[in-house]
Model the fold of this input.
Amino acid sequence: MQIAFFVNDIEREYENYTTTVLAHRASTRGHRVCYITPEDFVLNPDDSLSAHGRFLPKRDYKDRAEFFQALKSSKDSKIERVDLSEVDVIMLRNDPSIDTDRPWAMEAGILFGREAAKRGAIVLNDPDSLGRAINKLYFQSFPTEARAETLITKHASDIKAFAKEHKGNIILKPLQGSGGSGVFKLDSKNASNLNQMIEAIGRDGYIIAQAYVPAAKKGDIRLFIMNGKPLQRDGKYAALRRVAAKDDIRSNIHAGGKAEAVEIGETELKVAEIIRPKLLADGMFLVGVDIVGDKILEVNVFSPGNLESCSKLAGVDFSETVVEAIERKVDIASQYAQTFDNRHLAIL
Done:
């Protein structure tokens, strides 16, 4: 199969990123791999859709490091114009929130992903649903039973009333953003700084105020969900606990958080079951859910990370299971020509 990975840009990719891990695994299984960025699409006069894809040589790589070096090397990887109707799968793995400096790029994958799906490519996750999940407002569409109490506003008076309701223990973060950027915890020690927090976040848009979940002191759990179910291999779950660095509330790994092995129990499985219908209805193939206690704090449907860390901690290769599932979708699409729309294929 031919599989394309859509990313913000090649320069911001890293060897241990989940995208690289999946691309390398697809390559080792004999598939032709390319990368596409927001500026690479071409809608032709005959209504066909192409892309200037960066293709990696189809060969045996010693390891992922060598694969990644080939991707970065203009000598090894080649730019080729490819008709996207000939590409079996496009994985949308960009993070729109880091493209705010070039607004035209934020929804390029969604817009052209829709067009590619019309022309026969399987697009993961489903681009129509990703269009509705472009910011954290998507989080509010999950049942209240499974999510922390949340307020979204730009008015300081609303936030102050919410903080009072919760005895001054709340989390503040931007509606648009990722990676722990712009996240603050309000408590008795820094209550006098609330106005500054509101001003700092509010200058870039709406503010999310979220009830603080005490279990967050132990860190949050990142759990991968694939085809609506917790991702497993050999009886082990693709999950880890992310513990914040000292004096930092952000548990995101690249914000200084530390990854630890975690046992997934009835509480986490119940949360996954509550949100499963929505993920299936939206054609969300692979997502990363952040859980604290019995609540979800975030659902990352664009570019969930830490799959490699989950694999190392569990001692199994979850990327193999993900690529196997993608191969199965391509088989289903060929067996049932034009029977299923993209949203259904995404979660079969």
Remarks:
- The CA atoms of residues 41 and 112 lie 7 Å apart.
- The chain has three domains: 2-124, 149-212, 215-316.
- The domain at 2-124 is CATH 3.40.50.20 (Rossmann fold).
